[in-house]
Amino acid sequence: MRSMLFVPGDSPRKFEKASEGKADALIIDLEDSVVTEKKDEARKLTLAMLKGRRGSHQLYVRVNALDTGMTLADLAAVMPGAPDGIVLPKSRGGDDVQQVALWLDAFEAAAGITLGSTRIVCVATETAGSIFGLGTYKDCSPRLAGLMWGAEDLSASLGATEKASGGLFHSPYRLARDLCLMAAAAAEVAPIDTVYTDIDNLAGLEQETRAARRDGFSAKALIHPKHVDIVNAAFAPTDAERTWAEKVIAAFADNPNSGTLRLDGMMIDKPHLRAAKKILGLP
Questions:
Q1: How buried is 129 (Cβ within 10 angstroms: 0-12 exposed, 13-18 middle, 19+ buried)?
Q2: CA 24, 29, 34 angle in degrees (round to 5)?
Q3: Threshold 0.85, pTM exceeds
Q4: For 119, which of 17, 81, 145, 282 could close a Cys bridge (C-beta 3.0–4.6 Å)?
Q5: pLDDT tens across 236-274, in order?
Q6: Are the C-beta atoms of 45 and 10 separated by less than 8 Å?
Q7: Which residues does 236 contact at the CB level (< 8 Å), separation at least 6?
Q8: Residue 1 and residue 58 in contact, taking contact as beta carbons nearer than 8 Å
Q9: 76 φ, ψ to 5°?
Q10: How far are the Cα atoms of 33, 235, 260, 266 from residue 192, in angstroms, in the given order?
Q11: Maximum Cα–Cα distance for the chain, whole Å?
């Protein structure tokens, strides 16, 4: 999964348009893009979107944060539509995942959905306190599928006046990004890069996405359909990377009892083999 496109939960028109694109996943949003007065309507519309799904997109639903008191009502409304996953905003750590997982157990049983099949992705850096919970996601739940970092709400939590300048995040946001990446790696789940908000700056989007892939992120969240193709292309392996990966895998296949090998004048070992398999999407 490379691209996760947010779609407002109260807009079937935007959902229809997004469904025509090539995003790997659509996140139907019940949180920030829906005002309080329209939450109930958005829940009903979201259920209809889930039941009317078409194409190969994975469908996630971003529910409201646990501290709003609305999460349980969100889940009750949308789980009959069997979403592929839930996005939990303002997550504070593994305990929040366990709470949502417990509710999902009940909703899956009630709806006849395979137990444990609904995944959870957490937006894990939206408050100052959440940074200190990043180490608690490892082994918290088999449902956990990814950790996404976010800068918009974190800025408000910090009381900051600016997040970035010259296309580069300031240090508090780089710290949150890097810690989220490491937390996801430690938990063995997908690290997901934050949205790019300068909608018409496509060159900047490509640059940021390539930097995310370089550092180890495997996907990016998006807020506009025209970002999808750029992000998908930026996360795709280059021809040179594919060639290298195939050579590494072949070298170890030819020498199954060797821990280190010489390839094109360079020493390679098992971490290189794992990296090669990741490039090719192999287990």
A1: exposed
A2: 155
A3: yes
A4: 145
A5: 888 888 888 899 999 999 888 888 989 888 899 988 998
A6: yes
A7: 2
A8: yes
A9: -60, -35
A10: 20, 12, 31, 31
A11: 64
